[in-house]
Amino acid sequence: MAESLHVDDGLWAVLEPLLPEREPRRTGRPPVDDRIAFTAIVFVLVTDVPWRVLPREIGCSGITAWRRLRDWQAAGVLARLHRELLRRLNATGRIDWSVGVVDGSHIRALRGGPLTGPSPVDRARVGSKHHLIVDLHGVPLGVALTGGNRNDVTQLLPLVDGIGAIAGKPGRPRQRPDQVIADAAMTTTSTAANCGAAA
Predict the structure, then answer these.
(1) Which tens digits make up the pLDDT trace of 154-176?
(2) Where are the domains of the chain?
(3) Residues 141 and 102 sit within 8 Å (Cβ to Cβ)
(4) Which helix (H) or strand (E) holds 191?
(5) Do 127 and 119 form a contact (C-beta atoms < 8 A)?
(6) CA-CA distance, 115 to 100, in Å (whole number)?
(7) Prediction pTM value
(8) Closest by Cα among 156, 104, 154 to 127
């Protein structure tokens, strides 16, 4: 699997200009190349293997890949990459704005953190919730992370509003789907009316 994983040249061409410059090291081993680190990150995200068992043939240790991901996230690289990819998809008509689909999932957060809370569906264990909105074909338009104790309905409107303006086509940029579909946990009469959601 590791041998078959390859970061597409087109994707790398989009990401590379967004990466922050790193200070050159005066001592020690040279840092792992950014493209190799990105390949390692994608491998973990695609395969769901633990960082500690990242295959050596990729050329990057799991801890190095994890630190690079942490640093890029803190620097806003991934948010800018997502925005640029959405712009490109929109420019080629590959975002279906007719329907947005919203859902959420709970994950345990064993180490805690600011965006965690006791989950009502997991015996009050500490966890977080991922809230996601996608277009009709599954293209992720927006994501939010909250504590595991947050009610889903509180995140529907912020999630829709958080999409922001997506450029790529002439005229006014799109900011939200024509209608939003969500399960009962995400909608109420008032929120459904406010964003055209169908429960």
Answers:
(1) 888 999 999 999 999 999 999 99
(2) 9-75, 96-198
(3) no
(4) helix 189-195
(5) yes
(6) 25
(7) 0.81
(8) 104
